[in-house]
Structure formats: structure tokens, C-alpha cells
Amino acid sequence: MTAQTMTPRSSSQTWVVFAATAIALLIGWGLMNFVTGMTRPVTVDGVSTAIPSGWVIEQPTTGPLTTGPKVAGLVFTARDPLDPETRYLVSSLPASPDTDLGATAAIRNLQRAQDLTAYRVLEQTPVTLSGRDGYRVSFAYVDASQADRVPVVYEGVEYYFAEGDQTIVVTLESARTIEDALAAFQDFAAEVGLGE
Amino acid sequence: MEKKRSQHLTSIVQADLVSILALVFFVVVVYGLDTLLNPQFTGFPLVLTGVVLALVPAVIWLGFFYRRDRLEPEPKGMVLQVFALGALVAAAIGIPVLDGLFAVDSWLTRSTLSHILGAILVVGFTQEFLKYAAVRFSVFSSGEFDEPVDGIVYATAAGLGYAALLNVNFVIESGGVDLAVGVIRITVTSLAHASFAGVVGYFLGQEKFTKRPAWWTASGVALAAALNGVFFFLRSTLTQGALSASGSGVQRWLGFVLAAVLAAAVTWVLSGTIRKQMQMPATTAGGMEEA
Predict the structure, then answer these.
(1) Which residues of B touch A80 (CB under 8 A)?
(2) Is the minimum CB–CB distance between A80 and chain B shorter than 8 Å?
(3) B208 closest CB neighbour out of A10, A20, A29
(4) Residue A133's closest CA among A165, A103, A100?
(5) How far apart are CA B135 and CA A120, in angstroms?
(6) In B, which residues are within 8 Å of A6 by CB distance?
(7) Mean pLDDT within A7-32
(8) How many structural domains are present in chain A?
(9) CB contact under 8 A, A3 and B144
């Protein structure tokens, strides 16, 4: 084998290939950010928000949910068809103007501890999300509801917001680590409100 | 001389037929075994199954492309090294970039437009650039790369290495589920990656031995990326259809068949290009400018 030196012509060809690939990948990166950032407004039973485009919505009033256990006051769930093990849930609970969000969360936690397997509250604290006062609960449970698969550990986080005579609960549940999905979920949660 | 060339051509056609029959036999055997036995693999047997399913079509296709270079066959060891390098760049860079950095599975199929554009700009360019790099920064500067057609031979080897690693990854990630459909996908994917890399190799061969403008090879990578992206888009309809209730069986297979036709068409064009280059005198086919 004879080693040959690179000609200047080959060198410029190589740089153009690098540049073309870099430009393509940069445009691709922009496309990715555009597509993942796209949302569409939805209003379900008086609760409005914006969900990522391509996601599907399921309502307990229009048919059985294909994923997830029953949740009190559930208005709808939203999920990515490409990632069925991560979902957003929006619930609406009756409340009075002086309702304490922490107390509402405690009651809901007790209820879920009865309904779900190995439900654990990992952390709960008052928070402010996008200038909106609320209450956050981090939790985990085991979904053993499907007989044909191994029980799955779900991790989740939910925000409680007071909205007039309702408490809106916005929940993220995922069978994978929730850190990656948290930022997008917080954007979603900040958009949820009553009315059109 | 003409008679000898004709005999040689006949022997290549016969060998190609044997290759294609061997592939069909392989697919039929795996399809039949999976349908009859419905085996469940985990752990090491799963990895072994993935490696065997990925390597058999890759080796058969490698022989298919290797035979094209009948005038001055490249050293087998060198071809295998480039094959291994293709697999290495797929494992070390290709898969982490596409699955980790770009997370293409999570957004690409949100709309048809994003699917096609993303497949070309992200998937196509990443994969074809890496195959290009596997050849450009290894064998390209060596004395073994001594005729334009060598670009196609080495690039297809890199493409097959890349495909082999993707296919092992595919079998392991799917947990060995539905190997009957999987083996068809693996065989077509191997051919597609080899043929698209062959396009890059053609441009590389011309770059080395003929005077070309600075954008020449980049346009080859872009063409291969576009073909790769269209293939990826068409092939994805197989998986997408399986996930959605609306995708009928016919629709699913139609996309896959179109993807296979695209790969076969590019292979046919490549084979014709190699044949033409073989018939050219050395001065026209290249080699003069480098001297």
C-alpha cells in the first residue's frame, strides 16, 4: 500500500462536504425545534390549553381510556401516539374560593393511595409556575392493571391551580424518567385554564 | 479479449443470481421458522440472533458489490476493514446523534413534511456523511484506491457495515419480536445503505481521479442523503401503519415495497455505472490526473 498526500483539490472538496453536512444538520435542528414546539389549542369541557401537535386527546366521557388508571375529576388525557407511556392528564375538582390547594392535594393523594398500587408521594410543595401560584406534588406508583404485561413503575408530577370555583390539576405521568419531559410539561401546565 | 470479457460477465451474472437466491432462501427460512416456532429471545441469544440476521444479508450484498470490481479486485482485508469502520461510526456517532441528540423517533413523523425534510436533512445527511468519512479518512488516500470504481466498492462496504450495526440494534431494540417481517426489513435496509453509500463512492472516485469542481463530492453526499431520506420515509410507513389503527396492511406494505424498489433501482444504476467504467480505457476512467 502506498500512502498518498491529499491534494489541495481533495482538501477543498472535503471542506465543502463538511460545510454542506453542517448546514443540513443546522436546518434539521431548526426543523426539530419548530416541530416539537408546535402546539394546537384545545378546549375540552370548559378547560382550555395548548397541546403539542400530533398528540391525541382522550376523554372519559366519550369512551374508555386506552391508557392509565381512573382519576377523579378527569377532563381529558393527552399523549403522544409515538410514546404511549408518557401522558398528560387534566382534572377539574370542585372548590370554594377559600380552598387550600395543599389540603386538596392531600385528599387526592389519599384517594390515589387507595386506588393505585404502591402509590408514594415523593415531594409536595407550594410553587409559582409562570407567575401563577399553585401546589406541586411529585409521586410514583406501580401500574399493574394490565394482565398481559409486567407491572410498570410510573413517575409523575402534578400542579394544582385555583381557578374560580374549580381546582385544576395538571398531571404528567411517565414510565420513563420524567426529567426529559418536564420542561415541555411545565409549558403545557402554564397554559391550562378555564374558558375558551 | 471480447470473448473473455463476455465469459467473465456471464460468470458474474451467475454469481449474482446465486447471491439473490441465497438471500431469498435466507429470508424464506427465517420467515418460516419465525412463523412456525414463534421463538422468544432474550439476553445473549437475542444479541446472537441480531448479529446473524444482520450479517448474513450484509455479507451476501458485500459479495454482490465486490464482484463488480472484476478488473482489479480490492484486497479483501481492506474491504472488511472499511466494513468494520462503517459499523463503528454507526455505533459511535450515527446512532447516538440520531437517537440521542436529534431524538428523531419523537418528532419526525408528526407531519408528512417534517417526516420527509427531517429524514433527508437529519437522517440522510448524518448517515451518508459518516459513510463518506469512513472511506475518505481511511482508504481514500491509500494506493489501493487506484481506480474510480474503487470508490463504489469501498463505500458500499462502509454502507453495509453501517447497515449491519443498525440491523443488530433493530433486532435487539425490538426484543426479537416479529423476526419474520424483520428479516425482510433487514435485507432491504442492507441493500439500501450499500447502494446509497455507493452513490457517495461514485462521487469520491471521480473526485480522486478526475478534475471536478469543489462542490462535486458534496453534491454526491446530498444526492445520497436525499435518496436515503426518501427511503427512510417510505420504509417508516411500515412501522407507522402498524401503530395506527387507520393504516391498512396494503398501505403499510406499499410503502415498504416502494422503499425496496428505490434501493433496487439505485443498485441497478450503480451496477450500470460500474459496468460502463470497466469498459472505459484507463485514461478515460481515471487514474491519469493523480499520476
Answers:
(1) 106
(2) yes
(3) A10
(4) A100
(5) 54
(6) 141
(7) 89
(8) 2
(9) no
The alpha carbon of residue A82 and the mean position of all alpha carbons in its chain are separated, in whole angstroms, by 13
- pTM here is 0.76
Do A99 and A133 belong to one domain?
yes
Cell triple for B94: 450515527
Counting Cα atoms < 13 Å in the Cβ hemisphere of B101 gives 15
Helices (H), B101-215: 112-118, 125-136, 148-173, 179-209
State the Cα–Cα distance between residues B9 and B231, nearest whole angstrom: 30
Same-domain pairing of A85 and A125: yes
Same domain, A163 and A92: yes
Q: All 3 cell numbers of residue A28? A: 434539521
Spatial CB neighbours of B122, under 8 Å, sequence gap ≥ 6: A24, A25, A28, A31, A32, B98, B102, B104, B108
Q: Are residue A23 and residue A93 in the same domain, yes or no?
A: no
- Give residue B94's Cα distance to chain centre: 14
C-alpha B13: how far from chain center: 20
ipTM, two decimals, is 0.83
- Chain B residues whose CB is inside 8 A of the A84 CB are none
Q: Count of residues for chain B?
A: 291
Mutate to test the interface with B, among A21, A86, A174 (most CBs of B within 10 A): A21
Residues 112-171 of B with CB under 8 A from A: 114, 117-118, 120-122, 125-126, 129, 132, 136, 140-144
- Going residue by residue through chain B (291 aa), what tens digit of pLDDT does each one get? 566 666 666 766 777 788 888 888 888 888 888 888 777 777 778 878 888 888 888 998 888 888 877 667 888 899 999 999 999 999 999 999 999 999 898 888 888 888 999 999 999 999 999 999 999 999 999 988 988 889 999 999 999 999 999 988 888 887 766 777 788 888 889 999 999 999 999 999 999 988 889 999 999 999 999 999 999 998 886 554 443 334 445 555 777 788 788 888 888 888 888 877 777 655 444 443 333
Its domain, for residue A128, covers 40-194
In this structure, are A71 and A144 located in the same domain?
yes
Question: What span, in angstroms and rounded, lies between the C-alpha atoms of B154 and B98?
Answer: 24
Asked if A144 contacts A119 with a C-beta cutoff of 8 angstroms, the reply is no
**Rounded-to-integer distance, Cα B163 and Cα B60, Å:** 13
- Interface touch B215/A16, C-beta < 8 Å: yes
The whole-number average pLDDT for the span A12-21 is: 94
Indicate the pairing of strand A152-163 with strand A166-174: antiparallel
| Residues A44, A136 share a domain | yes
What does the pLDDT average to over A153-178?
90
Question: Is B222 close to A20, i.e. CB distance below 8 A?
Answer: yes
